[in-house]
Amino acid sequence: MADTTYTQVTNQQGAHFFGTPDTGPLVMLNLLRFRDEADYSHAPALAPAQPISGAEAYALYVEGMTPLLEASGGKLLYSGSAYGFLIGPADEYWDAVLLVEQAGKQAFLAFASDPESQAITAHRTAAIADSRLLPTFPQD
């Protein structure tokens, strides 16, 4: 497995994504690898009284974000477990896969930059050891 992990969007990636024309609705493919134990060092006020797993912290994130996602016109299309690839690198694995529909780039930006959304994102930060987020657009 590669030593490089990805947990946040870079400025360059964000600029590229938002700098291209808005093509309407999109679906975000999320590949997630959880920490064995959630790390709340960045947000100690949100840390549960007892340690929890990364998967449990991510469940708190999803629980808090779902109403905000739906209010922004988005929805969780699919959430499932994943392990190794059938076709792909044998040493690469993911714990979970999510497909999240967004009404468009601007709706996603408003959703992601909302202060309530950003506060809840601390659970995601605590949960994730590595991730991939791939925006996809419907073909005509």
Q: What tags apply to this protein structure?
A:
140 residues, 4 helices, four-stranded antiparallel sheet, single chain, Alpha-Beta Plaits, alpha+beta, 35% helix, globular
Identify the CATH class.
Answer: Alpha Beta
Radius of gyration: 15 Å
Counting H and I runs of at least 4 residues, what is the number of helices?
4
Structural class: alpha+beta
How many angstroms does the end-to-end distance come to?
36 Å
- Regions with pLDDT < 50 over 5+ consecutive residues? none
Please name the CATH topology.
Alpha-Beta Plaits
Overall geometry comes to globular
Work out the helicity level: 25-40%
Number-wise, the strands total 4
The side-by-side strand order for the widest beta sheet comes to 2-3-1-4
